[in-house]
Amino acid sequence: MPAYMIARVKVHDPEGYEAYKTKASAAIEAHGGRYLARGGALEVLEGEDSGARLVIVEFADVETARAFYNSDAYQEAVKIRQPVSEGNFIVVEGL
């Protein structure tokens, strides 16, 4: 069953964030993930907008999404992301 990693990220240093994007993309690809949305135009239909980027990545299943997130390669990317942004990451099981 597919799983979706959904991230909302407020970027404080766009230049510093570029290095994160490169490393994160490689780790996602290595785990068979694919971007469904990545910081594109966003329209809030109800509620408040946090002003954060929205990223949605599809994985084969929840276990693969967890393996990606906990991988050494992605954790190296996290070390780059955290000083230049604030994020909220969740994984949800698809239908």
Automatic annotation (TrEMBL):
Listed name of the protein: DUF1330 domain-containing protein
Transmembrane segments: none
Lineage of producing organism: Bacteria, Pseudomonadati, Pseudomonadota, Alphaproteobacteria, Rhodospirillales
Pfam families named in the record: DUF1330 (PF07045)
Organism: Denitrobaculum tricleocarpae
Coiled coil spans: none
Segments forming domain DUF1330: 2-95
InterPro entries from the UniProt entry: Dimeric_a/b-barrel, DUF1330
